[in-house]
Design a protein that fits this description.
Layout (H helix, E strand, L loop, with lengths): L3 E2 L1 H9 L5 E3 L3 E2 L1 H12 L6 E3 L29 H8 L2 H19 L9 E5 L4 E4 L15 E4 L4 E3 L8 H10 L5 E5 L2 H8 L10 H6 L2 E4 L7 H10 L5 E4 L3 E6 L3 H21 L11 H13 L11 H4 L25 H18 L1
Parallel strand pairs: 1-3, 2-4, 10-11
Antiparallel strand pairs: 5-6, 5-9, 6-7, 7-8, 9-12, 11-12
Helix pairs in contact: 1-2, 5-8, 6-9
Bound molecules: zinc ion.
Length: 358
């Protein structure tokens, strides 16, 4: 039977730094075909069709070692020619393509508006590739990307780096594990940021494992003060709600994982807001159930302030639960139907309709 190649398979190849290769007898899904042409239009090497079972023998990053990170660790002090060679290398290109892909996903999911949202990937001791300013994440191209040092000075790239880069860099400086950072304005999570509250916990496993959510107070976007407040939270949190602004996430693995956190926190916020409107009590995890999830989280190398807490302390935050604020305020006075004449008219009409239905 022919193998089916999905968009996921292609993404996997790109992520692993493999040349995109399709066995000649494989069935390629329409979305995978679209994705391949998108890659090609973004300057990625065209997909190669290989004969037989698809094992082209090319190990990840094997094509002349092209897609493996440089062996020599670069810094902002490295010679310009070395930085240039790196920035124009196939490896750097693959990171730029990843940022573009995440940008397109952010835009398609309506997590960004206008030119909002920005991302960065650490690529050396004190340098990062980041998104440019004033470009929609829906139309990002690899050639739009910038190389900056950790003070925010632009080293390479034709477009000007994002104005919010300082926050990303301060996160990377403060949290040595942070490889990639992603910032955007997903509506439901940003709603929690507007009220300055982390979502209540202990309701969905995905959220508990992948996200640890903290809240940073409002400061002007792009200001050093904003960056510091966010950076200080990265010891214990990987998903930070920025009050009256949006969300920023980081990953110790790659930019896609930082992006995943965005999807997960946004889906969680949306789900619990809906759950709160169903008029039923919200069921939450027990202490032992929560302990197990945190065990998985720890094994994945993610941060969380609750590691080491007693089971009974894990889900007793106790303040807001979904639905609590959705209840109508208690009042002895009716707030509608004060007009006695209108009330009587409505009653008469209702009685008439009911009588006709009998
Ligand atoms: Zn923003």
């Amino acid at each position: 039977m022919s193998r089916v190649i999905s968009v996921r398979d292609i993404q996997e190849m790109v992520r692993n730094g493999q040349a995109v290769s399709i066995p000649d007898d494989a069935l390629v899904t329409p979305s995978a075909r679209d994705f391949m042409s998108e890659l090609e239009s973004n300057g990625h090497a065209p997909a190669a069709v290989v004969k037989g079972n698809g094992s082209s023998g090319a190990a990840p990053g094997d094509a002349n070692g092209a897609l493996t990170p440089p062996t020599k660790k670069l810094t902002s002090k490295s010679p310009k020619s070395e930085l240039e060679a790196f920035f124009n290398s196939p490896y750097a290109h693959s990171l730029k393509v990843q940022i573009c892909e995440m940008g397109h996903r952010l835009w398609k999911r309506e997590y960004v508006d206008g030119n909002g949202g920005n991302m960065a990937i650490r690529v050396g001791e004190d340098i990062a590739i980041c998104t440019p300013t004033l470009v929609s994440k829906g139309s990002l191209k690899p050639e739009d990307m910038c190389l900056v040092d950790f003070e925010g000075n632009q080293i390479l790239g034709t477009k000007k780096r994002t104005s919010e880069i300082l926050m990303h860099l301060q996160m990377m400086k403060h949290q040595p594990l942070a490889v990639a950072t992603c910032h955007c304005h997903p509506p439901y999570a940003t709603a929690f940021a507007i009220v300055g509250m982390a979502p209540p916990t202990c309701m969905l496993p995905e959220y508990e494992v992948f996200c640890a959510v903290g809240v940073a107070p409002y400061r002007t976007p792009g200001s050093p003060d904003m960056g510091k407040l966010v950076a200080d939270l990265t010891d214990q949190y990987n998903t930070i709600l920025m009050a009256n602004h949006g969300v920023v996430t980081w990953s110790h693995n790659n930019i896609e994982e930082a992006y995943w956190r965005m999807e997960i926190v946004e889906a969680y916020c949306r789900t619990i807001v809906v759950a709160g409107q169903l008029g039923k009590p919200i069921n939450t995890f027990t202490g032992p159930q929560m302990k197990e999830l945190l065990g998985i989280k720890q094994s994945l190398g993610f941060v969380d302030p609750r590691f080491g807490m007693k089971e009974c302390e894990l889900c007793d935050s106790g303040e807001w639960r979904p639905g609590a604020t959705a209840q109508a305020p208690e009042s002895s006075e009716p707030t509608v139907g004060l007009d006695a004449d209108a009330e009587a008219a409505v009653k008469a009409i209702t009685d008439q309709i009911l009588a006709q239905m009998k």
